[in-house]
């Protein structure tokens, strides 16, 4: 059996989370059109009779400006240290030179597959240019074009990954899909809705903390704090007469119900915690290690 750790690296918005979900056939990682949606390393486990791939989605690689972003980059680093294969994901339409510089700077010691994403919205000529560009790079063991969104060429990608995975016994039970707790995904689903519903900086100043999670006979009761940095952000989150937070709650609850497969009672509170993104203690409390 082939077993090993595969990490998806790439710049913000390359489509890492979309690829992770497409390979898993399940939505584990949250996705949004905004950059820096992913803040943690998220592990998904794919087990078949022939292989176990332990896939990691990582935050987009950036130059950190505040402590939260430093933590995000530490998540990238820790994923780097225990991978057998790296997927270097690039949006076919992004700046290739900048993407390549980042891949080079990772100084990966493991085989790297350059994965060109978003081929569904890329012209043939442009794709040829991208292939030629990465094909000549020394870190590129293998080159493959996909569309994570449309699910194109994913079998080919899996076959390419398997070529480089070592033989070994599975690390996880075949039934397990992730090593992260349910609460984590619930908080992420709320966070995803914030990325969709609120404009500009709001999602970047916000985090979500699950404070209560109780399975009752007919439903699961979930209470969460939405943490922001300033009073003005709290006002925006709530919206006029609480309109926005109500919408957020309804949308998040629907996703959580589908995820848990049972009815959910979701209660949301907005808390102001000045400068939480730069506070080591609060970052820990909110799950950023
Ligand atoms: N057209 C097209 N869009 C895609 C594809 N893959 C991802 N996207 C879109 O690109 C955007 C970013 O996708 P994500 O999966 O959140 O990207 P990410 O790399 O995880 O982003 P960060 O969290 O910023 O690191 C979303 O709007 C996706 O729907 C693709 O193959 N084709």
TrEMBL record:
Residue segments, region G1: 10-17
Keyword match Isomerase: no
InterPro entries: G_ERA_dom, GTP-bd, GTPase_Era-like, KH_dom-like_a/b, KH_dom_type_2, KH_sf_prok-type, P-loop_NTPase, Small_GTP-bd
Compartments, as annotated in UniProt: Cytoplasm; Cell membrane
Keywords: Cell membrane, Cytoplasm, GTP-binding, Membrane, Nucleotide-binding, Ribosome biogenesis, RNA-binding, rRNA-binding
Any GO CC annotation of this UniProt entry: cytosol
Start and end residues of each stretch annotated as G3: 57-60
Family: Belongs to the TRAFAC class TrmE-Era-EngA-EngB-Septin-like GTPase superfamily. Era GTPase family.
Official protein name in the record: GTPase Era
Taxonomic lineage of the native organism: Bacteria, Pseudomonadati, Bacteroidota, Chitinophagia, Chitinophagales
């Amino acid at each position: 059996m082939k077993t090993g750790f595969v990490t998806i690296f790439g710049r913000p918005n390359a489509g890492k989370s979309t690829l992770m979900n497409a390979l898993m056939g399940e939505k584990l990682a949250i996705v949004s059109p905004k950059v820096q949606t992913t803040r943690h390393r998220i592990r998904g486990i794919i087990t078949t009779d022939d292989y176990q791939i332990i896939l990691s989605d990582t935050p987009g690689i950036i130059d950190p400006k505040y402590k939260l972003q430093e933590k995000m980059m530490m998540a990238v680093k820790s994923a780097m240290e225990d991978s057998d294969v790296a997927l270097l994901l690039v949006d076919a339409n992004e700046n290739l030179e900048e993407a390549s510089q980042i891949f080079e700077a990772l100084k990966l010691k493991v085989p790297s597959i350059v994965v060109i994403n978003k081929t569904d919205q890329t012209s043939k000529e442009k794709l040829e240019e991208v292939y030629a560009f990465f094909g000549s790079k020394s870190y590129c063991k293998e080159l493959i074009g996909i569309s994570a969104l449309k699910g194109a060429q994913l079998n080919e990608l899996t076959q390419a990954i398997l070529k480089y995975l070592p033989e070994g016994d599975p690390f996880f039970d075949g039934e397990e899909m992730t090593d992260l707790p349910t609460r984590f995904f619930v908080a992420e689903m709320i966070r995803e809705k914030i990325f969709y519903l609120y404009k500009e900086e709001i999602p970047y100043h916000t985090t979500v903390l699950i404070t209560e999670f109780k399975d009752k006979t007919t439903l699961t009761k979930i209470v969460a704090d939405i943490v922001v940095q300033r009073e003005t952000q709290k006002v925006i989150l709530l919206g006029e007469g609480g309109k926005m937070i109500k919408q957020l709650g309804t949308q998040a609850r629907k996703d959580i119900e589908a995820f848990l497969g049972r009815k959910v009672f979701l209660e949301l509170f907005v808390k102001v915690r000045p400068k939480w993104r730069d506070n080591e203690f609060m970052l820990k409390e909110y799950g950023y290690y």
